[in-house]
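Lab notebook page, bench 4
Experiment: in silico fold of construct C2
Operator: M.H.
Input chain length: 1379 residues
Purpose: comparison with the prior construct
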Amino acid sequence: HNPTTSPPLLLPHTLTPTQQPWIQSIEKRFVSKEEKRRKEGKIRNKKEFERMKREGRRRRCKKVILLCQDHSSFKRTDRLSWFFAHTLPIQPQSISLFPFSQLFSSSNSFNNNNNNNNNNDDIEKGKEKERKHGMKEEEIGREGCKVICGIDEESICYGDPFLLSNKSMELSTILHWKGSIPTSPSKEECIVKYGDEWMNKGVELYLDQETECLVVYQSYRMVISLDISPSMATIHTASNSLLFDQISIHLEQTLRRMIQPISIHLSDDQFDLERENEENGYLEYVPLLYTTIIGQGSILECFKMNIQGVLLTNENFEYHWSVIKNTLKEMESDVVSIYKRCSKDTLAYSNHLLNIVQSAAFSLKCLPSASLPSILLITDGVTYLPIDANAYDSILMLLNREDISCSTLLVNRPNTNPSHYGYGYISDRETLRYVAHSTQGVLITTVDDVPKPKTNLTLSQRSNDSERIEYQIDSLAADLSSSFRNISSTIQQQSFFFKSTNPIHYLFQITPSPSLTSFLSSTSVLFYYPSSSSNNDIKKEWRSIEKRREILIKETGLVNSITAIDYSFPWNDMESPPVPVLITPVKKYTMAIDILPILKIRTSEGFQLDQITFDESTQTRSIKLFMFWQPNISLFYTIQHRAGHSSITIDFEIVAFYEFLLQYTRSQQNPNASSTSGRLSTFITNMVEADRMLWYLLSQVLPCLEIPEDSNEWMQAKQLPEYNNRFWKLLTNMGLSTWHKWFDTEKIEMISKLNLASPSNQSTLTLPLHERHNQVVEQLEQKMLDWSSFSFEGKLFLKLLPNYLPNQSQPSFFIVQLAWETIHLAIVHVAFYNIPSHLRFQSILQLKELFHSFSTEETNDGVTVLPKSFRPLMIRYDNISKSSSKSVKEVSDSNSKPVMGLSVPPLPSIPLSPSFPLLLSYMPNKRWIWKIENTNTQDLVIELIIKARLRQEFLLQNNGGVLNFIKIIDLDVSGEDQQEKHNLPCFFQYVIYRAGEKYIITEIWLEPQTGFLNTKEFPLSAQDGNLFEALKQWVHETDMHIIASLSTFDTLIQKANSTNEMPTVQNQIDSEPIESNYRIQKTPFSLGNIVACSRTTTSKSYEMFIEKGSFNGTDKTNTLLYNLLQHTLSLLSNRNVPLGRRDEDLIERGIQGSICFEKVLNSSVLILSFLQPISSVILEQKFQISFFECSRENLREPSRSQLPSGIVESLIKSSSLESNMHQIEHSNEKELNFNHSVRHPRQMSIPVDLFCRSMSEAHDRNFVKVLYSCLRDGVKIDGRDFKRGIKTCQEYLLEIDITQFIQVTHRWKQSSQDAEQTRQRFLKTLKSFFSKMEGISEEEYYFYLPSETKDLVENQSNQEENEEDDLETIEREEDEEEE
């Protein structure tokens, strides 16, 4: 035996003559030195096998327990393949293990509390021994699972030393040792070398068909669906309480018993289990349990989410249970209010079981895909199944393909008298049992009445009181006591955590014992009296088969005898008698095909293994499968293969009651597809067609696959598109949608990620988004083409893998299909053929790594692989009709133009709910409806929002005009007290689309995942709504800023040429109802948003007079100058713009309260001027005007958030995906700016410069005007102000020749006395029109002041003095009167 090789998954078989040449060519091409060495080693292994058998080291394994870490690598078909590979071959694959007694040292006992922090030295030693012995770590459990323990017929337990030594690396979270420390055996004890190969020296345990094989997983995901239909509001007379109140009791007990530690003892002997075995110890198995609890009523509106994805442990159960109870109370109140609003016809509608199962299956997709899925329905059984529930590819078949078990817990007693039920609410237990058994689930009922809950007890007392509830399991397994002899677990854990691969022997269960058969054959009528003490043997025999529900009879004449039993019909405390059924052959045919591929197909369709037999005389092996098609109607599918033959024989049989078989026989003559028998005929026909297509694939399609022999042919095959063209055509003709039947399929969802970091080529930033997406698609397909072995039309890529299995004649490959479902969203379908489960898992990881490392050459755009399925949660509005929405004015999408290269046509109406209405009740959401009448403004709003969301690291995908932005948020679900953290991804969606001509709708949707987002400030709880509120505020403030900016800009442009006074608009959000179901958002008028996004900003200071006096805080000169400055600014601008009450952006820039003016340059550019108020002049001693050049194209998201910076940073960088790290590594940003975009200062544009110059020139002229006015009015002016005003004035020189005047008056000669006299006369003449400027000593300055003006000024001055005197007189007289 060679432990480094995997067991064959395909059974040995002979080939048809047409297949022989193809197989021979394949073998010839793949023969290598390694295979020759393997063939030579088989001889040595066979000798060693015989020697081990003689020495007694090969023993039969009675029970084996396997552990799988990832459910996707070891599903239901993989479990069956593993079981067949170890049991069906003539020399089955054995397991090399060591007795646990050799793996422990009695001197190394330790405290149970130190189990997680020990064995570091042993682990390193184990790693070193693996390297020395040539055993790589990935080879441990290379079949997708690990062997925890195996038990032989002598109840001796065996284990894997390498698994034990590496337990803390991978399994420390779920496996704990209790007792002594395991030690790794030495090299001589473990491994011996034969030639170039290593071989274990442990005991070889071989499996057979009777070996009990149990499979457990590292993690589980469970959805518990609570029945909240009207029937749950009835009173249960046995406990005098509502059935809905019992849900809380059963739910608590189920969860408590699921999270208890499971003890796996190291012995199967009953004596060892009854005593404490401290010497050997035991394994404590605590798997991870992710739980979702939902409520489903009889109508869709009654779907309620209680809690999703909570990781339940013993440490956090009390906290989560308190939350669950409070949510149950809220759910009850909400459901009652919903039912009150419904009509009587709606309430009369009974529960549709498939709708409940579909809702639960939908919730399962939101949980980790690596966990084993299961569904538990807690209901009273008042439900029904539609007629198409058992059709081919129905929901039950899909559950089996996904390995989802659907179990039911009945809240009433199993033997409850039907008279205790409410009128019209009869429990259909047979339907629930059928659904459970069809999906390998169980039906859980209570043995005794549930005690009435006591409100005056503490939580621990209530828990202990409820633990008295005993449950019984109705499963297909005949007896589970032997399987769990050495396992201490609850029945809930046995039902959901342990998966068995053993035959069920269901045909034997429905076959009566020989004594009863002989009795029935001799008696026409059997009377059964429950109270009679006679016929005790018959009574005991009847009770033994009473649990079987069905009794198989061989003659039709016994039907009347069985049905004539007096069973106190109609009501009795006992269950109904078993149904007599007959077995009838239906179809039989022969096919040249292997056993295992067809077994995989049947297992994925819902068939279960019944029995395996081998006839020594004919060397014929028979494998019988069965399937529940309807209650009391089963299909048996038997495969027979005779040694030495290349074909198998398939036999269909129906086991059903007589009336149905009679109807089925008649329907073969007169087919009726709508009848029950007609649907069964269609079902069988589909199965036969599936078998034929499988034969077609194996015998016709796969032989056409040509594999090059050398490197030259490989190069030619890469360059020739028509290479393997026949193979691709035959394969695609089978239908890509049906590949899940023939191949092992997996799905990967990914979204193209646009990198907004500055690349080397700046021109690529302006490329439309659809062109950048096309570059991603083209270069990704080219990379896949280089990676693959062959391709077809650039959409299908085939990758060949080496032959990992011994005696493998067929090639191993997998096919990758890239399907872009929407713009930017791709579904990668991966189909595996002839590849073991563990290699499928590794191939998926390598494929994801390939996508992670991909980036385009110019723009560094790439793709992001989503951590879980997003497609079921995606918000769509595919089918919007007037009947399902409030109609608005329809608009044709022919006039809509692309936005950044994306087509965003408007929807004809405002939708009431998404295309998948369940999401409306499943996910917390918020909608805003914005009324924007300008189409160009709508385009710009959508463009700015796209840029803002991409900067916030959202992922974009476009679906028919609905832009969906996705953010992946990692939530901590482990709790604060847990040392090891467990994160689950949560999808947050932002949706924007158009509706009608003038509406833009924005929505946010958050997946209801339980957990916390750890931030630098404080953790945000998703369950309490804190995370949703933070996301809503973060998104809404960005949208409000963008939409308010554009709306304000349009208002300013529109009012620029208007003469009407603009009304003052408050800076707050108002809403106006236009429909009864909608409230339209009214965007605020906010200049601060425009100012914050201005293209250029400049501030100018203007001179003012040196204050001499005060006039209301400012002297008269500066007051006049301020008024002229404001008047000039109004003349140069279009109009005055009133400001709101409070604007944070204006306050931040210190311009709140200023006087604002707008100057429109063109339809997309304007200048906003803010003049400081008069009160600010007193403090700053200057006139200051701020100029902002605002452009529509320069508007963007806000540069700050009202949320704390730590929360904003966590929201932006909320995911730990490798794709995000990949984008960060390729960016050239030196610093991550979490406050959105980075602003770079720009130079003042020419229009703004001209406007500022005009304003400065006008202010200089105003300064001179005020200076002259003050001089004229007698206001004292500082000489420095006068000189500054003179500099602005234009200077004119005026020369006056007085020579003739002097000659006439002074006879041609003037003395010094005459000169002075003449000067005085000149000054007298000058003063009649000018007045001298006082306070300037250097020079004499005069300003123009006419005599009449001078008199007026003097009179005004005298009048003011008289008024002051009169005022003083009045004040003096008043004082005297008071005295």
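Observations: The mean pLDDT is 75. The chain has 42 helices and 56 strands.
Next step: discuss at group meeting.
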